[in-house]
Amino acid sequence: MIIDNLYNEAKGKSPVCLGLDTDESYLPKCISDLGEGVADKIFKFNKDIVDHTKDIVSCYKVQIAYYEALGLEGMKAYAKTMDYIRESGSISIGDIKRGDIAATGEKYATGHFQGDFEADIITVNGYMGEDAISPFYPYLKEKGKGLFVLLRTSNKSAVDLQDVEAGGQKVYLHMGDLIKKWGEGFIGESGFSSIGSVVGLTYPDEFYMLSKTYPNMFFLVPGYGAQGGTGKDLARILKESACAVVNSSRGLITAHKNKTEDTDYAQHIRNAALAMKGDITRWL
Ligand SMILES: O=c1ccn([C@@H]2O[C@H](COP(=O)(O)O)[C@@H](O)[C@H]2O)c(=O)[nH]1
């Protein structure tokens, strides 16, 4: 199961999930000056980053919004990036946050678990209930795919809805119970389910509690670096269970900024990923 592969990658390499939220403004001059279209430049940058980090990170999360914003050219760069990550033997997470009625959900599943945009794991929004999630189940069983369902998001306004009490329980805990139930049929050898959840590092106490409440749940954790999360926030959680991969996007893929515009940019990004790995693992 994909979750066992991700668990093994996180243990063997590091819990670092490198986020390819690639904005054109992040490209070093040695790439932006090339006489090619933007899709080719972005793909070149992403490819170089993968080549320089695949031995030290557990997975790559590609934020589709950055590619959609560039239209057809951007989507070509997205497709090539997803393909290259998987071709390199690494795990790809398509951060697409989809979720809709079942008929539409089936199309999302087809669009992102096979074909041009194929990912190993995608992020989904379960706040429409199980029929927004069940169209993905056949791909989990038959193609070994995985899901990370939004649980406790990293943004400030997460509390507006997720902290509301309903029936004596916060909404996000209802969601946690649902994700646990949806994931019961997909538990792998690692003890974790291929239906995991997204929990922000910006709420470390809630994250700790969730990791204790749901011992079979694996977590995708955004919020490290640019959003303020640190390795110290993760210490007690990861010490007790290797239950998460931790994403950093801007904090890693802009590490070369103000240092170099030359072809050594990917080495700066690698160094930043190594520093993140060190910051997380020194507490374990
Ligand atoms: O709760 C959430 C869910 C998803 N994200 C995504 O993670 C990255 C974070 O990027 P940074 O540059 O490291 O802040 C981005 O793709 C978000 O869309 C999140 O931040 N919080």
Distance between the termini: 26 Å
Helix and strand run: HEHHEHHEHEHEHEEHEHEHEHH
CATH architecture: Alpha-Beta Barrel
Strand order of the largest sheet: 1-2-3-4-5-8-9-10
Bound molecules: the ligand O=c1ccn([C@@H]2O[C@H](COP(=O)(O)O)[C@@H](O)[C@H]2O)c(=O)[nH]1
The CATH class is identified as Alpha Beta
GO molecular function: orotidine-5'-phosphate decarboxylase activity
EC number: 4.1.1.23
Active site: 97 (proton donor)
Pathway: Pyrimidine metabolism; UMP biosynthesis via de novo pathway; UMP from orotate: step 2/2
Structural notes for this entry:
InterPro entries: Aldolase_TIM, OMPdecase_type-2, OMPdeCOase_dom, RibuloseP-bd_barrel. The active site is at 97 (proton donor). Residues 15-266 form the Orotidine 5'-phosphate decarboxylase domain. It is a single chain. With 284 residues, the protein is an alpha/beta fold. It has a single domain, classed as Aldolase class I (TIM Barrel, Alpha-Beta Barrel), CATH 3.20.20. It is built from 13 helices and 10 strands. It has an 8-stranded parallel beta barrel with strand order 1-2-3-4-5-8-9-10, surrounded by 6 helices. The protein has a two-stranded antiparallel sheet with strand order 6-7. Helix 7 links the parallel strand 4 (121-124) and strand 5. Helix 3 packs parallel to helix 5, helix 10 runs parallel beside helix 11 (231-240) and helix 11 (231-240) packs across helix 13. The radius of gyration is 18 Å and the shape is globular. The two termini are 26 Å apart. The model has no long low-confidence stretch (mean pLDDT 97). The ligand O=c1ccn([C@@H]2O[C@H](COP(=O)(O)O)[C@@H](O)[C@H]2O)c(=O)[nH]1 binds next to strand 10 and helix 12.
